[in-house]
Amino acid sequence: MKSKLVRKNPIEVPNPVGKYSHITIIPKDATMYAFSGQIGVGHDDQLPKTLHEQITNTLKNIEIILASEGMDATQVVKANIWATEEIDWDYFDHKWDTMFGDSYPSMTIAYVSALGLPDIKIEIDIWAAK
């Protein structure tokens, strides 16, 4: 991809209520990547009990899967976040900022009654471009 992603928050719409961009423009010369949802399983193949630990592991797993394709968080276009319990936004935003800095991808967040396995509290799927 010769051009960079462009992230915008038009002044005509209200400011984002979280750490995301309303619009992410993908250059026409980019290759799109769709990544399956990542969960908080650690390198020991165990799923932690707490949402905080699952958030930490989930974001780490996203960084690893991006790196496996020679990518990093700056190339994430869109994130869909699914959670079964209320997210501690102070904790989440700290981890999110560490990963993305101040260049946030577009985002959708939903609270759901269950995910793929009973103990999963959060799942994040991403789209990226390079």
Automatic annotation (TrEMBL):
Coiled coil: none annotated. It comes from the Bacteria. PANTHER family: BLR7761 PROTEIN (PTHR43857), YJGH FAMILY PROTEIN (PTHR43857:SF1). This is RidA family protein. CDD domains: YjgF_YER057c_UK114_family (cd00448). Pfam families: Ribonuc_L-PSP.
